[in-house]
Write a structure and sequence with these properties.
3-stranded mixed sheet; 29% strand; Phage tail protein beta-alpha-beta fold; Jelly Rolls; 13-stranded mixed sheet; alpha+beta; elongated; 7 helices; single chain; 374 residues
């Protein structure tokens, strides 16, 4: 654990000037080491460095300790096990007939405050989605491209975004104030307006991409095996889920690819699922003749496959043409296909592929899908 980084983030947390991205990083660090004595000692030292003017009230420290150590710490309780009420107007509520067992709470004040951070951050992670759901509903802006279509949008800062089929982009009303942050599901090409003071950040499930001003493509379809970012001009800083301190800087004409697959170390505990990330860096690929970049060819309404497994071909064609497939000939799935389509209909595209790769297809009107046969 990076103690210096932890201390830096905790101080920003206490000073209430921590960013959302930093708070996520801090929460991840805390959760990874929640039972670590070193973590607890560090948090306590940081808290004590603030030298609070007064002690934490008994009812507050008791509540925190009860939440964190319900089985280990006994505070003022009645026979039902309930906690004492919070005081009204600063008066401690003591009731006659209650079995009282006092603990010198002042000894735990700084520790309770330290552990309170753990408790609050853990709750923040658990409640983040539900707490932000109403806010997103009220404040979020969602732009999308339905299957069978592509769309372009201009963000409030002047950034242009092209969305590929089956993709959507979210941003809120605070966009551009401190950060320019968006969340992407699917594929998008960005032409980001330069602003060195306000970085532009794209969040996906597997990676986060930070830029100042550049053109690049991000592909993050959750149903696909990998998430990719391809840089055309400028520079990109890529960080990875669950590895907040690891970063990669891309140069023009480079792309990074990271696995979307997960492994569960303990099937009984979903929290044990960890992302298997094996990032690889390579060069973007070009079409012969016009030398256009294959990774961004869809922006120019070209559907391009280069040595791509048929399983991925039908997945992409399904989004591109807004149709469904049923592949009966499973031997086709791992076979590699190369093709380029621009103005062809789905029937024309499938006919060309079937002739080149020796398979047949039919359209089932009752099911509304294309069936691929031998």
């Amino acid at each position: 654990m990076d103690i210096n980084r932890l201390e830096y983030l905790v101080k920003k947390y206490f000073n209430n000037n921590i960013t959302d991205a930093e708070q996520q990083e801090l929460a991840a660090l805390v959760q990874e080491c929640e039972g670590d004595t070193l973590l607890k000692d560090t948090l306590e030292q940081i808290w004590e460095s603030y030298k609070p003017a007064q002690q934490m009230p008994d009812y507050m420290s008791n509540r925190i300790l009860h939440n964190l150590f319900p089985a280990q710490i006994v505070t003022r309780q009645d026979h039902s096990g309930s906690l004492p009420d919070e005081p009204a107007d600063g008066v401690t509520n003591e009731r006659p007939g209650r079995a009282v067992r006092r603990i010198p709470v002042w000894k735990y004040v700084s520790i309770a405050a330290s552990f309170a951070l753990v408790f609050l951050l853990t709750r923040w992670l658990i409640l983040k989605n539900s707490d932000e759901a109403d806010t997103k509903a009220a404040n979020a802006h969602v732009v999308s491209a339905q299957k069978g279509s592509r769309s372009k949008v201009e963000l409030p800062d002047g950034t242009s975004v092209w969305l590929n089929a089956g993709s959507y982009l979210e941003y809120d009303n605070d966009f551009g104030k401190i950060f320019r942050q968006v969340s992407l599901t699917g594929e998008a090409f960005f032409d980001v307006t330069h602003n060195a003071k306000v970085p532009f950040i794209i969040h996906t499930d597997a990676i986060d991409v930070k830029v100042l001003g550049t053109t690049f493509n991000v592909r993050a379809y959750p149903e696909e095996n990998r998430t990719e970012a391809a840089l055309i001009s400028g520079s990109l800083e890529v960080s990875f889920a669950n590895q907040s301190l690891k970063k990669v800087i891309l140069k023009p004409s480079e792309k990074i690819s990271v696995s979307n697959k997960t492994i569960v170390t303990d099937p009984a505990q979903a929290i044990s699922a960890t992302t298997v990330q094996a990032p690889s860096i390579s060069s973007v690929t070009y079409l012969p003749g016009d030398h256009s970049v294959i990774e961004t060819s869809w922006v120019n309404n070209k559907l391009v496959f280069r040595n791509k497994p048929f399983e991925e071909v039908v997945m992409e064609m399904s989004r591109w043409y807004n149709v469904n497939f049923e592949v009966h000939d499973k031997s086709l799935l791992p076979r590699r296909f190369t093709a380029t389509f621009e103005t062809e209909t789905i029937h024309e595209a499938l006919t060309q592929l079937s002739v080149s790769y020796n398979f047949s297809f039919t359209y089932d009107k009752t099911k509304g899908l294309f069936i691929i046969n031998k």
